[in-house]
Amino acid sequence: MLVGGPQFRRLMVSSDAMTDGGARPRVSCLIMDGMLSFPIPVAEEMGKNEDKLTFWKSKEMDLMVTSVPGMEKILRRRDLPSFFRVEDANDVVLQSIIEQSKRTRQAVGLIINTFEDLEGPILDQIGKHNANQNPYSIGPLHTHLKELQKAKGMESSHHSSSFWKEDDSCIAWLDSQPPDSVIYVSFGSVATLTRDELMEFWYALVNSGKKFLWVVRADSIVGGGIGNEIPVELEEGTKLRGLMVEWAPQELVLRHKSVGAFFTHSGWNSTIESIVIGVPMLCWPYFADQMVNSRFVSEVWKIGLDVKDSCDRLLIESMVREVMEVKRDELLEKARGMANMANKAICEGGSSHVNLNRLIQFFKSTA
């Protein structure tokens, strides 16, 4: 059978032939026909520059990424956005992200939903690498309306941007629970779970012994819903300590006195909402920037725990206990401190308040 460079490369990757510690001894020498030289560039690439391959083995995912300014000692390979996890550098999604990033540099300004005390070093790097752009960090965006209503003596109201109908009945259930006793679980509107993943999370929550409020939509389960065959122990455990709803008024839930932690997919909206309120997080990122967000939650801001790339029931059960009990005090202290900084940022004289006024003045100057 005649093969070429790409096929040979895939063979070497799939068989661990060019890496140490694989299933078989590493290939140290290749003997080839003088008329078939295609293995030479493959061997040079894989033998000398293994760290530059686009496809990483699981054992390489915990190596540090050293080429992102401001994040040299923070990000591991597994913390990079999910669109980097491709075997082909010409992947359509990856190339689209690259193209969009290039186009972003053509804008005269960047409006960013964050605040300086949260991501100051990153904002500094954005400024250095985009000298012709004005970055406007004006977050947390969703808090500005409440601050304006407060300043004008108006009653704050609950506004939801969700496409899903919220089940307010969960608030009454929360009212009946002890303070800080419930872990709120929601993986957002996009993430999907296989039935196996659903079962792993469900067992973990029930076996943790903690009370839980879990947002689970039927269309978020691959294959069409939870199904009828539910183990008795899960049904009984949920009746005793849990409540499952299709959708919930998230901000109201996070502010509720009975909620002690947030088990989240680390979407930025959910992350920033939790930061503003001061609720510790347990992070299970699903895709895109969520991988980076969860790393910052656990290792930079230290307001939660990161459990990416695993949904093993024993590990999740242990992590639920960690965030709700073992490490609760230290996480809560950090989370409340960050919440205080978030709320100061939008008050008069705060960094986001100042930047919002700068942005308004810029808009006026273009009229």
TrEMBL record:
Pfam families (alphabetical): UDPGT
Annotated GO MF terms: quercetin 3-O-glucosyltransferase activity; quercetin 7-O-glucosyltransferase activity
Keyword Amino-acid biosynthesis in annotation: no
Keywords, comma-separated and alphabetical: Glycosyltransferase, Transferase
UniProt keyword annotation of Glycosyltransferase present: yes
InterPro entries per UniProt: UDP_glucos_trans, UDP_glycos_trans_CS
Sequence similarity: Belongs to the UDP-glycosyltransferase family.
Name recorded for this polypeptide: UDP-glycosyltransferases domain-containing protein
Source species taxonomy: Eukaryota, Viridiplantae, Streptophyta, Embryophyta, Tracheophyta
